[in-house]
Amino acid sequence: MKSFIPILLLVISVGLFFVVVEPLRRSVSDLGGGISAYNLALSNSTFLQKTEDGLLEAYKNIKKEDKDRLEHFLPNTVDNIKFILEVERIANQYGMPIKNIKFESPVSASGQKAQADSAKSGLVISSDPKASLPYGNFSIEFDTEGSYSSFLLFMKDLEHNLRLVNVKKVSFTVPNGKSSGNSSSSLSGDQYSYSLSVETYWLK
Fold first, then answer.
1. In angstroms, rounded to a whole number, what is the distance separating the alpha carbons of residues 190 and 196?
2. 133, 204, 197: which is closest to 165 by C-alpha?
3. What's the CA gap between 115 and 17, in Å, rounded?
């Protein structure tokens, strides 16, 4: 009988270990891992907050005229009419009238509907690969006329314009009527007819 009691106590102790102590130990271990993950997330959050504060401070120290130049170089709105007027203003400086302007709306009605449907459904994937880009693009096509020297000056000013502009296509008609590009009109003297396609960009 005396030898049975120690064995019984040993069996009870082993049972309590597996039934009570071990689950508690695992629970405490899991909580410790969760606390480590939360501490890491908090540390990352603090680092990101400091980085954001540093960037905001650096932005505040930028001069207003430099901010205006950056805004003009890559605006946060497409402002297509302003862009067209700007191209026309540069061309008019050299007596080169802008005509036959063609462009498409930066965001069509169907595109807006697709974006709205995606937002409602929670989808973040679009069939249009450009939809995921942080910037948008706006293209225009137009015709103009003038001397070759005036055209070079126009292109130079367009290149050095504050707003980012990419000339995608240029075609022209030579004075003797032998055309290069899409135009087939015959011109005389030192006047040429030009067809251009240019593109600008904006932040979404």
1. 19
2. 197
3. 58
